Amino acid sequence: MRMMWIAACLLLGACAGTLQPPKDDSLYRELGEKPGISRIVEGMLLNVARDERIVAHFRNVNIELLRAQLIDKFCVEAGGPCEYKGDDMAEAHKGQQISRSEFNALVEDLIKAMEAQGVPVPAQNRLLARLAAQRGEVIEK
Predict the structure, then answer these.
(1) 44 in helix, strand or coil?
(2) Do residues 137 and 15 make contact, with C-beta atoms less than 8 angstroms apart?
């Protein structure tokens, strides 16, 4: 059931534009607050480094800056007290021509990182839904 919902949300864009960052911090707390989000992002980036499907998109990226921006982005999306100061998703991915399969590969790497941190599936789904709302700003831009 979980994978079907995620697939529908990500592959079909069913969640695009339907969710706003939450007003409460329950997801932020479920993810382990900033230290937990940091571990998730670090795990995801390690997974990406080993993922031949998408690693080429990250070869010329300042990984430390990306890491910091992803932590802030995930923190904001989860209802935490962070402030994201990076580019909007459309600008950040402009000209990269990221395909649906490449986007989905990154999502898989994120899921693996959350599983490795013991994030409960409902919390994983809540974060994924919030991020999926921005899918259209990333793919094929």
Answers:
(1) helix
(2) no
What's the CA gap between 71 and 108, in Å, rounded? 17
Element (H, E) at 31: none
**Does residue 107 carry a pLDDT above 90?**
yes
Average pLDDT in the 10-36 region? 69
Q: Position of tokens 């994983």?
A: 124
Q: Which amino acid is at 131?
A: L
| Euclidean distance between the first and the last CA atom of the chain, given in angstroms as a whole number | 30
| pTM, two decimal places | 0.79
Q: Count Cβ atoms below 10 Å from residue 61 Cβ, excluding itself.
A: 12
DSSP state of 56: G
Beta-bridged to residue 139, according to DSSP, are 98
Distance (Å) of CA 134 to CA 13, 16, 52: 9, 6, 24
